[in-house]
């Protein structure tokens, strides 16, 4: 697997029940958050009739630029950002793919999660109407190189509890988060990766 499958992973924010200004809450929370960790469940759906892909796992973020996404089910896969490079490791394929962190952040939702607080430079943000008991924020990437058309964050009770991503291929990725911990103590080894022996390494 030579391309990065970006995971949404998590963002906390503050939201009121009615007339919420999710954009301001998102910026305010990110400015006071250095790290976060928890679990995620994810579904990917395409055109009608195509199979729905379901997966789950754990994640950790240390801002800026460090993150770890671990798919546990149905197959293991690991994505690690060490502050300089991003690694994607697929144990089944025995392959590790690496690319520069700056390029990875500019073209993926990871910029919202692990990047700096200058969201307006990368995304056009706007509040959406409340739906399903959540307040929603839409982030549209400004870069034409982004792999996503739009990213939507569902906010409730001081947490992001849902994320929806629409890509250029007509696929919709929906993620829900649980067990979130803000600013936890995290080991530096979480955000380090060394390719195992006998693994093909691809650099992009």
Automatic annotation (TrEMBL):
Role description: Participates in the translocation of lipoproteins from the inner membrane to the outer membrane. Only forms a complex with a lipoprotein if the residue after the N-terminal Cys is not an aspartate (The Asp acts as a targeting signal to indicate that the lipoprotein should stay in the inner membrane).
Major location (coarse): periplasm
NCBIfam families: lolA
Descriptive protein name: Outer-membrane lipoprotein carrier protein
InterPro entries on file: LolA/LolB/LppX, OM_lipoprot_carrier_LolA-like, OM_lipoprot_carrier_LolA_Pbac
Subunit: Monomer.
Gene behind the chain: lolA
One Pfam family, short name: LolA
Assigned keywords, A-Z: Chaperone, Lipoprotein, Periplasm, Protein transport, Signal, Transport
Subcellular location: Periplasm
Protein family: Belongs to the LolA family.
Superkingdom of the source species: Bacteria
Leader sequence segment: 1-20
